[in-house]
Amino acid sequence: MILRHFGYILIIVAVYLSSTSATTRKHHRRSTENDSRHLGFQFEVEPQRNVTVAESSSHLLECSYVLAHEKYVQNVRIEWKRDGVVLSERSSSKIKVLSNGSLWIESMSSTEEGTYQCAAHVTTKQDQTVDTWTFLSRKATLRLADLAKFDLQPTDRTVAKGQPTAFHCLINSKPIPSAVWLHNDQPITNGGEYHILPVSNTLEISSTQSRHEGTYRCTVEGAGKRRSSQTARLTVTTGDVSNELSFLTTPRLQVIEQGDEFLLECLVASRIRPQVRWLKDSRQIIVDGVRIRRVGVSSILVSRASIEDTGLYTCRASNNDDSIDRAVAVEVRAPPKITTRPATKVAVETADVELECGTAAARPEAHVNWYKNGEAIIGSEYFVIEPNRLRILGVVRADQAIYQCVAENDVGSEQASAQLLVDAPDSSSVAASSGVPMTASAPLGLRSTSSGSRFINVEWDPPVQRNGNIMRYHVFYKDNMIDRERMINSSSTSATLTSLQPSTMYLIRVTAENEAGMGKFSDSLKVTTNKEQAVPGKVTSLTATATGPETIDIRWSPPAGGQPALRYKIYYSHDPLEKNEKETLITTSTNHYTLHGMDKYTGYLIRIEAEGSNGSGLSSDTVRVRTQSDEPSAPPTNIQAEADSSTSVRVSWDEPEEETVNGEITGYRLKYKTKARGAKGNTLVIDATAREYTMGNLEPNTQYLIRMAVVNHNGTGPFSDWVAVDTPGQDKEERTLGAPREIRPHAGIDYILVSWLPPADEQNLVRGYQIGWGLSVPDTETARVTASTTQYKIARLNSERDYVISLRAFNNLGSGFPIYETVRTLSRETPHFNDDSDSDDADGGLGSSESTPVGLRAEAISATSIRVMWTESDETAFNTQYTVRYSTAVDGNQHRYVNSTETWATVEGLRPATEYEFAVRAVASNGQLSTWSMATRNRTLSAPPSSAPRDLTVLPAESGDPHSASLHWQPPKYSNGEIEEYLVFYTDRATLADKEWTINYVAGDKLSHQVSNLLPKANYFFKIQARNEKGHGPFSSVVGYTPSGGAILSGRDRNSPRGHGVASADGTVSLVEQFKSFVHENPMTLFIILAIALVLILTLILCSMCCRNRDGSGGRRNGYQSAKKTSSGGGVVGVGGPPNDLWINGTGSHMRAGASDYMVDGLATAHLTAVDIESPTPRFHHLQGQGTLTRSYHQSSQSLEGRQRTPQVVYTGTGRHQPIHKIDFDSPYGSSSAIGSASTPPLPPMQAIPSGPPTIIDGYRTLRGTPPNSSAANALRSFTQLAGATPPPPHSATSSSSRPTIIAAGGRQVPVGRATAQPRVNVANIYSPYPCSASSDAGESDRKVECMEMRETTPIKTGNNINTNMLPSHSTEDLNEHLENLDTMLDDLQQLQHNLHLDTSMDKQ
């Protein structure tokens, strides 16, 4: 029994050892390390890639190898190929293959140029089987040296003394030829003032002097040849040199090979030598003096170039005024390098083999080709070529060979090889002691469950005799017409065969494998794939080329097989794909298409499908393309400027939006200037990596304007708006800082928002703030922010915990005193709490802090809009809406609201240059409201003024200069920004275009201006315009003015809206000009008006004559009556003929400014005669109230004789700056009754009836008439007006004041003298054509006064009695009466014509 058990144990051990031995033997055969069939071939030396050989010289191309295993090697043969053709020593006596395999070329000529490759053929023999293995070396290009023609030659130059200059002498040849420069045919030595640059042989002169004048030329030698350039002349001048930067030489586009050196030239001229910096891809180049060194004046030389040196190089020259850039691309080309080499493998027939071949980055991109024993492999169903590998499906014995991947580009090639050994399937088995095989029997029931045009699904049953554990199943299948069989493995009793051909019969069989090996095969199963509907094949030769910043040109070739393509589908998307992005589809029927409207400097993925009648075929390979770059389309964002000291300003900014850069940022251009008019700006260019810059050497107590732009390789983008910053008058002291004035924490569930106010001592410099926090203790964690920051968010906190917040300011002396606050974060279980910060909400301010938006910021977009952005605190929130609240102090902080579904909102319709405050809260999908976020503020951008300056008035100059005028105005109501200046326009011809008016520029903080060099008695027109930083506003109304030297005008001149020394607010032109324009434009209308006027005049004359004849010599009741002088008691003062009537003055009655009688407040007063004072025309007869005029008028000499004349001071305007006029009624024609008792204050400017033209408006001036006994006193029979005098109230009482009054602003009356009581006169009746204008409802006493008649000196008939005290009438008096009536009618006609012209002008406007 024991022996039986022992025998069983021996059998088991024997079976185990046999199985182990078989497995070991099988694995040993699969290993290549100890397989003698493995050759281990390797090229020891390969021919050099690119060689340039001089003509008629000899050259050796080396090729040697080593073998690791030579057991079965019988022969090794080396042969050479040129351009793919095998070379033979018999065909050329110049070629000889040496014993070591190298190729000797003797006497190089052009026929020997080409691409050479070495091929090694190794022959082995094993078990009567002879195999040949072929290995290919890398390729070598052999060229004949030559000296090319000149690319650049020296040209004539004229240079200012002391400036640099350069002459070119460039030939692109390899090797680089040597050059010799000649000045006036004398060789130049490199060094000192002369710099001969390497590579390009450019001659630079660092500082041109007179001794450098003359001729220059260069001589170049190379490849056994010599070339001389043309001769150039240098002329040196001594004129002034501009400080403008200009390039003399610039870097040129270069394509070089790895390991070579390249030169980047840059020479800049300017009056002040500029600073030149070099940048590569927006980063400054560090000149180490070894690999990168400076040559010449400002050029650089780069040695041992590598692929990493490929990029965009920028020469940046700058001085104090400007900065200029010149960029150029440098491409370093390198041959490919294989990083993953294919490995030698031993495979079993029917197995699939993969050989990998990975390459490193090469410029240009390398193409990988596969070779089998020196023959190129063409992709097929069983040889699948993929980008980095070769797959051999269903290996057969014939596939045993050397497989090589050869990567090549225009620079060179690289190869890697692998040996593939193929064995027959292993049929060994382990026999038991009885000799029965231990492998599994054949699987049963092999069947096809489904099939298509490209696949077959098969199933089977396990074998009956497994003889152990079934490890796997092997499924073999092949095309019925091809001997190559393929195999797949399966761990179950089913498998899917893929990548099949349609309408093809396949033979399928299966076997099981256990520990002993593969068992018996099942019977073959024949299955035919389905027929496939024909579709177009894959399009080929797909290329995509960027033709501009927004265009891509796509071209392809039609598919080679399948159904003809009816149309093509173009799919493109961003590279890389954006979030939730889908491909864009475009359909076209041609094999080329241009995409428009693409994003600038953006990568795209493009593929194409050909579509036929049965659908689309396979998609093409995806190609990548990037649109070209362009100038930046937006400036930097968040530009801030802070004064670091009285002489320095720190500017900080953020990068612009990525889609607006349109390339790679190479720097930022910063311009700054003072706000003074005509200030010269300075320009700085800052590196692209910088985010802040400190400007130094500034002026203290000065406002600077700063703006920035983005710079890329294509140029400079748009500049930002000006940012203003003021440098303090003196530097702040850095002392120990006090605590911040206030800290305001706002707690959330997992965060705390902290805001604060700076320390109270504003003279102490603050450089930043430090925030600290911790659980129950402060400063466990800290963070620092800048001095301009007043808010910080502490995130990632625990809920329902007490945190101690600390805040302190710091400067260079250290941290200041802290301020502490304990804050408890909110509970997650408390969704609502009362929010008192928004009491104006209808919901009572109920809200949740969990979803309160954070990080609120406002960015001004335009003059009327601000974009508000925030961060969603609850990232899990869904369908959240937001409400933005905003207000401004201009509207009394009235809240307005805007809704948004995004985390941003643009608030429109705002006022320009106005600060607004914003807050936002979230509205959840269930209606739950969050608390309002912390507020942020920002100001809208400025805009041109939308209204004109107000209240423009023109006054005589305060100095009394008759050739000057003083203008006063008020700022525009809507300035839309700070007014920088006012533009005062004036001219003596109102019809001129605006550009032809004379312009005076006035600083924006001034509200008055004096215009000089005016001509007396010339009509001038004034208007004013405001300008801010954004542009000009509208014009004000035109105001007319005529300089007069201080005298009052004649009555006819006062008919014009612009009398001498008088300003008119309506801006109309003179009557003469209006009349000329009216005649020119409306001649027929003028004739009709004149005819009607003539008929009216004749009719009135006839009526008056009839009335005289009917009334006889009686008193005149209807019409004008002669005015006679009377005493205060009403008696007759003078008797005689009627005086001369000056209502129509043939000799003219223009005013004459006499000598000053005395000075009032330093201003001379004009002495007037009675003949200088005339009555105003009916144009100014505007009544207000109950029949009184809007201004005071003088009574006639008849009614004012004998009254005491007392000086009066009259208020002449409503503005606080307008002067008060003192008037001395020293003549018998002045009346104080009309101006001495004004109790009603003047109306506001926009409400009062426009007053007549003021005659005396500059200070206190006294008007004196002719003495009462003057002969001219009897001549004045009409009435005159005191312009600007305040009219009396309609029913003011008789003046009983013993002192005259000063009527000033606000209606205050101040007695200044004594005056006798004067009768009340209704001046409205003075200019009535009838002697009485009392209404029927007036009181009796009023009617008596208002119907006061001016008595005649002729007797008046009363019934049949004649008053003997009256003198008889004379014929001249009658004539005068008619002339008075005619004069009045002519004036009325002129007024009618004037009104008609005004109406016509208004209609044209």
Please supply descriptive tags for the structure shown above.
single chain, 1405 residues, six-stranded mixed sheet, six-stranded antiparallel sheet, 8 helices, 9% helix, extended
C-alpha geometry = extended
Poorly predicted tracts of residues? 13-30, 427-434, 832-846, 1046-1069, 1113-1370
Q: Percent of residues in beta strands?
A: 35-45%
Helical coverage, percent range: under 10%
The radius of gyration over CA amounts to 54 Å
Q: Roughly what is the average pLDDT, rounded to an integer?
A: 76
Signal peptide: 1-22
Domain Ig-like: 41-131, 148-235, 245-331, 336-421
Keywords: Cell membrane, Disulfide bond, Immunoglobulin domain, Membrane, Repeat, Signal, Transmembrane, Transmembrane helix
Subcellular location: Cell membrane
Explain this structure.
Residues 1-22 form the signal peptide. Residues 636-650 have a biased composition (Polar residues). Its main location: membrane. Residues 442-532, 535-630, 635-730, 739-830, 852-945, 948-1047 form the Fibronectin type-III domain. A hairpin with a 2-residue loop joins strand 9 and strand 10. Helix 5 (1083-1111) runs antiparallel to helix 8 (1371-1404). 31% of the residues are buried. This protein has eight helices and 99 strands. It has 1405 residues and is mostly beta strands. 9% of the residues lie in helices and 37% in strands. The strands form 29 sheets. Strands 11, 13, 14, 17, 18 and 19 form a six-stranded mixed sheet that branches.
